[in-house]
Amino acid sequence: RYFRGGADGLVHYSWGREILQNISNSNYLEALRGSEDVFYFMPGLRYFASVNNILFGETIFGYFIICTFIPIIFYKIFEILFYKKIAIYFTILFIFIPIFENMGIGHFNFIWNFARFHAEPLSIFLFLISLFLIIKFNLNHIKSDGHLYFYYFVGILLALAILLRPNYFPASIILFIFFSILTIKRGYFKNFFINLTGY
Questions:
Q1: What distance in Å separates the CA atoms of residue 155 and residue 173, rounded to the nearest whole number?
Q2: HSE on the CB side for 104, CA within 13 Å?
Q3: Are the C-beta atoms of residues 127 and 199 closer than 8 Å to each other?
Q4: pLDDT tens-place string over residues 11-62
Q5: Segment 59-78 mean pLDDT
Q6: Residue 14 CA from chain centroid, whole number
Q7: Helices (H), 41-83
Q8: Is 140 exposed, middle or buried (0-12, 13-18, 19+ CB in 10 A)?
């Protein structure tokens, strides 16, 4: 059921609309407040909803597009960890067969949460991109020197994943610490601080 009645998705979407309304009325502080003094619901999705509505109008097509890229990220992670043939098999399983369904591995789980307009698919998408970049960095597929934007980008992706789903903080901090150790071991102290700034 799309935007299931009484579920959180309607609340997030309506707060995104309120943020846009406040921006159009030049109430920028109220827009940043995001309709709550203390966040009870996931804090980040309302801001994403407002950006989505700026770009795609009264739809959630932006979220839909992001969800279609989740299997590609899975494929790229499997490809770099194993090899192409295994990556194709794993991705087909991920899309079509509910293997490890209770552990959230199955594209239909992401689509189900998208249809309810929950934050999980977007948060996991950002988390997986950062995981993919860190794996590439660890395997020396990305040059370590320079490219300060790369370190900031990894940090900000992990931070946005937490903003969308604060309960992903433990997994996010583990990735951040691992990436920081890799950076420091290679002697890129400036890059570590850039990553920390993003995070």
A1: 10
A2: 8
A3: no
A4: 889 999 999 999 999 999 999 999 888 887 789 999 999 999 999 998 889 9
A5: 93
A6: 21
A7: 45-56, 61-81
A8: exposed
> Distance of CA 107 to CAs 84, 100, 183, Å?
20, 11, 33
104: its two tokens = 């959230």
- The pTM of the full predicted model, rounded to 2 decimals, is 0.89
Whether 152 contacts 195, CB under 8 Å: yes
In this prediction, residue 35 carries a pLDDT of 86
Dist CA 13 CA 176 (whole Å): 30
> In the Cβ-directed half-sphere of 63, how many Cα atoms lie within 13 Å?
30
- pLDDT for position 103: 67
Burial 84-98 (b: 16+ CB within 10 A, else e): eeebeebbebbeeee
The whole-angstrom separation of Cα 30 and Cα 61 is 26
Instruction: Tell me how far CA of residue 191 lies from CA of 93, 139, 182, in angstroms.
Output: 38, 18, 11
Q: Burial letters for 33-69: b for 16+ Cβ neighbours within 10 Å, e otherwise? A: ebbeeeeeebbbbbbbbbebbeeeeeebebbeebbee
- By the 8 A CB rule, do 146 and 188 touch? no
- Residue 83 DSSP symbol: -
Residue 187: pLDDT band with limits 50, 70, 90: confident
